[in-house]
UniProtKB/TrEMBL annotation:
Residues 142-204, 517-590 form the Large polyvalent protein-associated domain. Transmembrane segments: none annotated. InterPro entries: LPD1, LPD5. Pfam families: LPD1, LPD5. It comes from the Bacteria. This is Large polyvalent protein-associated domain-containing protein.
Length: 594
């Protein structure tokens, strides 16, 4: 049977107006409608002037104000003619510290000055970049300090500059938009009619699924409340059948509460509160987020239980010890209660499968051998430089300063030194050994040596009465450079023989999530908690579609749009692998509720 219901409008079933739909069950607490807010009033400018509203793209400190309110440094001529645009009293200023700095002045009114801001600041906010001969316009995000391309495809810098001048305001107002679920005008569902066309009450929802309480926002009308009860009932029935869990497992046997439009946070479509163990779907945009938020609750249920936290409410509706939430996908402890070990292992495996995959790489295509060769050449140069330093030291005459060991080396000693150095430069330094003065030094690299280096040390000892081994001494540094040269050459030889290598690399899902996080100040999309919830939503959608069903209040649009630069969901083989793991995971979860 198929349903297509407009969101909160034109409902085909009548709502019994005599039975008002309100909060049901326990008092969850902490809802926005219970929070006391003070009444705020806007104060107007005391002189009746229009107040300036700061655009988000305007750099901090810059603003428009009346000349009478501007305080300039009396020792600095601020209002020069080159900054004058007219005879008005409004100006663009930079306000920081004791004095203001006038950028432009003479505007007739606030509107004229504000309209001049895009032209005045577009050059400093929107920059021109170049990549492979093509030019593009970009801006630096204030939060993440990352480049955000706003327009590309210019053949020349002049073409980009002209476009920037002609479209200043639209370029400045360009914002980074993270992927989000589209708002549905109507909610579609196909599948079994579990309600037989009847309306569901809050009591029905609590009795069947075990929710301890249902909460509604004040702005939800009676028609809307009835709609979300019906939507939620169908969605949880579909979720129970996809996961294979008992109906009461949807609330974790009476723990999870439900809220609709009563606990909204900023621009969030929905959210889960671990401290009160309740999920909230926003009034208009929450549709499609139920599977995502329910998995957050399951993730926390397993993680907190494995940690030994008692998940029960006190008189105020709070769950002590779980305020910040402990999630199984973000739990790295190995020890846990024996009853939870199997399911925790599945969540740990999910975390690894989402982020990494094993792949065979061709060593010739990685460029690592070439990179190692560059390192080996660099170490060879260092070996020669330090060898020449030793030779120059032996040639130097210090007899003016030292009685013993001050004279320069004899021609025979210099010839012997040069011969030894040539052998070392050619890679014939002999076997690695330990310098005899080992007991005098603390760290291994101070006394690491080679056969040829030991011969050289004897010549140095004969000339200078010291072998220059020790912390930051030239012979130790020389020997250490040889060590790293040989180590790098050994790695090159090993990788050249090994044509392929199996490595753990980041999945596309993880890499794409991290790409979105580049535009944020802190990680969100690439956290294991959020990746797991989005992957679960994709899993539920796929399992429904396999049976030609859809349940849009439960989940929808969990696939990236074709050609989208920002990808938030798993796809291809990775998606199939993660879906298969969810099947195994819920076999273990099922045992918790049997």
């Amino acid at each position: 049977m198929e349903y297509m219901r407009p969101l909160f409008e034109n409902m085909t079933t009548d709502v019994n107006q005599s039975a008002k739909i309100g909060d049901y069950g326990i008092h969850i607490g902490g809802a926005r409608k219970e929070q006391v807010t003070g009444r705020s009033t806007k104060t107007s400018d005391k002189e009746g002037l229009v107040k300036f509203t700061h655009p988000f793209w305007l750099p901090v400190g810059y603003m428009v104000d009346h000349l009478d309110h501007v305080k300039v440094n009396p020792y600095y001529e601020e209002c020069s003619n080159r900054n004058k645009v007219g005879d008005g009293k409004y100006c663009i200023i930079y306000r920081k510290g004791r004095y203001d700095r006038i950028i432009k002045f003479g505007y007739t009114d606030m509107t004229e000055a504000v309209n001049a801001l895009p032209t005045e600041f577009v050059d400093s906010v929107i920059k021109i970049g170049e990549s492979e001969g093509a030019y593009y316009l970009y801006k630096i995000l204030k939060t993440a300090k990352e480049r955000l391309t706003v327009k590309s495809g210019f053949a020349t810098a002049e073409e980009a500059r002209q476009y920037r001048a002609e479209n200043a305001l639209s370029l400045l107002e360009f914002k980074f938009v993270a992927p989000e679920l589209p708002h549905l005008k109507s909610i579609e569902r196909t599948g079994t009619d579990y309600r037989n066309g009847k309306n569901i009450t809050a009591k029905d929802l609590c009795d069947i699924f075990g929710f301890p309480g249902i909460e509604f926002g004040n702005w939800l009308t009676q028609k809307e409340r009835q709609a979300v009860l019906n939507y939620a009932f169908d969605a949880f029935m579909d979720l129970a059948h996809v996961t294979g869990l008992p109906y009461r497992a949807m609330s974790f046997n009476g723990l999870l509460a439900a809220a609709f439009g009563s606990r909204g946070k900023a621009n969030a479509l929905a959210h889960f509160e671990s401290g009160r163990y309740v999920f909230n779907l926003s009034r208009l945009k929450g549709a499609g987020s139920l599977a995502h938020e329910w998995f957050h609750a399951l993730d926390n249920f397993v993680g907190a239980s494995a940690e030994g936290i008692r998940l029960s409410r006190n008189a105020k509706g709070l769950i002590y010890g779980n305020e910040s939430g402990i999630f199984a996908t973000d739990r790295y402890k190995t020890e846990c209660d024996e009853n939870w070990k199997a399911v925790v292992t599945e969540f740990t495996s999910l975390r690894d499968i989402m982020r990494f995959r094993m792949t065979e790489v061709d060593m010739n295509e990685t460029g690592e051998i070439a990179q190692l060769q560059k390192q080996a050449d660099r170490y060879q140069r260092i070996v020669k430089e330090r060898g020449e330093s030793i030779l120059n030291e032996l040639k130097a005459d210090h007899s003016k300063y030292y009685r013993r060991g001050g004279k320069s080396a004899t021609p025979e000693q210099l010839a012997e030194t040069e011969a030894i150095l040539q052998e070392i430069y050619a890679g014939n330094q002999g076997a690695e050994c330990i310098h005899p003065n080992r007991s005098l030094y603390q760290h291994a690299w101070y006394y690491r040596s080679y056969e040829q280096v030991e011969k050289l040390a004897k010549v140095v000892k004969a000339v200078r009465n010291t072998d220059y081994f020790g912390d930051n001494k030239m012979m130790s540094n020389f020997s250490n450079a040889i060590f790293w040269r040989e180590k790098t050459k050994s790695e090159i030889s090993q990788k050249s023989e090994q044509k392929t290598e199996v490595r753990r690399v980041s999945t596309d899902y993880y890499s794409n999530s991290r790409q979105i996080d580049r535009y944020r100040t802190s990680p969100y999309w690439a956290t294991t908690i959020e990746m797991a919830a989005r992957a679960f939503g994709a899993y539920v959608q796929d399992r429904l579609e396999e049976k030609d069903n859809k349940s849009q209040y439960l989940v929808h649009s969990h696939r990236d749009k074709e050609g989208s630069e920002l990808k938030a969901y798993p796809s291809g083989e990775e998606r199939a692998t993660i879906n298969a793991h969810f099947d195994h995971l819920f076999k273990q979860v099922r045992e918790l509720f049997e």
